[in-house]
Predict the structure.
Amino acid sequence: DDPVLASYVARRANNLIMLGRYAEGVALAERAIAIAGDTIDGNFFRLMHANGLMALGRLGEAEATLRTGIA
Protein backbone atom coordinates (compact mmCIF):
# COMPACT_ATOMS: atom_id res chain seq x y z
CA ASP A 1 0.00 0.00 0.00
CA ASP A 2 1.09 3.55 -0.69
CA PRO A 3 1.91 5.55 2.47
CA VAL A 4 1.85 8.81 0.49
CA LEU A 5 -1.71 8.13 -0.64
CA ALA A 6 -2.73 7.19 2.90
CA SER A 7 -1.31 10.46 4.24
CA TYR A 8 -3.06 12.48 1.54
CA VAL A 9 -6.42 10.84 2.23
CA ALA A 10 -5.92 11.31 5.98
CA ARG A 11 -5.16 15.02 5.55
CA ARG A 12 -8.36 15.42 3.58
CA ALA A 13 -10.26 13.51 6.28
CA ASN A 14 -8.81 15.68 9.01
CA ASN A 15 -9.68 18.87 7.12
CA LEU A 16 -13.28 17.74 6.71
CA ILE A 17 -13.56 16.78 10.38
CA MET A 18 -12.12 20.13 11.45
CA LEU A 19 -14.67 21.89 9.20
CA GLY A 20 -17.51 20.02 10.91
CA ARG A 21 -18.18 17.76 7.94
CA TYR A 22 -17.90 14.72 10.15
CA ALA A 23 -19.62 12.05 8.05
CA GLU A 24 -17.44 12.83 5.05
CA GLY A 25 -14.32 12.96 7.19
CA VAL A 26 -15.10 9.64 8.85
CA ALA A 27 -15.51 7.97 5.46
CA LEU A 28 -12.13 9.25 4.28
CA ALA A 29 -10.48 8.33 7.59
CA GLU A 30 -11.73 4.77 7.11
CA ARG A 31 -10.14 4.73 3.67
CA ALA A 32 -6.84 6.07 5.05
CA ILE A 33 -6.86 3.36 7.74
CA ALA A 34 -7.51 0.69 5.12
CA ILE A 35 -4.59 1.93 3.04
CA ALA A 36 -2.17 2.32 5.96
CA GLY A 37 -3.13 -0.91 7.74
CA ASP A 38 -1.67 -1.75 11.14
CA THR A 39 1.12 0.81 11.14
CA ILE A 40 1.95 3.80 13.30
CA ASP A 41 0.28 6.02 10.70
CA GLY A 42 -2.76 3.75 10.63
CA ASN A 43 -3.11 4.13 14.40
CA PHE A 44 -2.88 7.92 14.12
CA PHE A 45 -5.60 7.81 11.45
CA ARG A 46 -7.74 5.77 13.87
CA LEU A 47 -7.53 8.64 16.36
CA MET A 48 -8.81 11.03 13.69
CA HIS A 49 -11.54 8.52 12.79
CA ALA A 50 -12.58 8.26 16.44
CA ASN A 51 -12.76 12.04 16.78
CA GLY A 52 -15.17 12.19 13.86
CA LEU A 53 -17.25 9.35 15.25
CA MET A 54 -17.47 11.05 18.65
CA ALA A 55 -18.64 14.26 17.00
CA LEU A 56 -21.39 12.25 15.30
CA GLY A 57 -22.42 10.75 18.65
CA ARG A 58 -21.26 7.26 17.66
CA LEU A 59 -19.41 6.71 20.90
CA GLY A 60 -19.37 2.91 20.88
CA GLU A 61 -17.77 2.84 17.45
CA ALA A 62 -15.28 5.51 18.50
CA GLU A 63 -14.27 3.44 21.53
CA ALA A 64 -13.87 0.32 19.37
CA THR A 65 -11.67 2.24 16.94
CA LEU A 66 -9.45 3.51 19.74
CA ARG A 67 -9.20 0.08 21.34
CA THR A 68 -8.10 -1.38 18.00
CA GLY A 69 -5.35 1.21 17.84
CA ILE A 70 -3.93 0.26 21.24
CA ALA A 71 -4.36 -3.50 20.92
User: Anything to note?
Assistant: The helical segments are 3-18, 22-36, 40-55, 59-70. The radius of gyration is 11 Å. The first helix runs from residue 3 to 18.
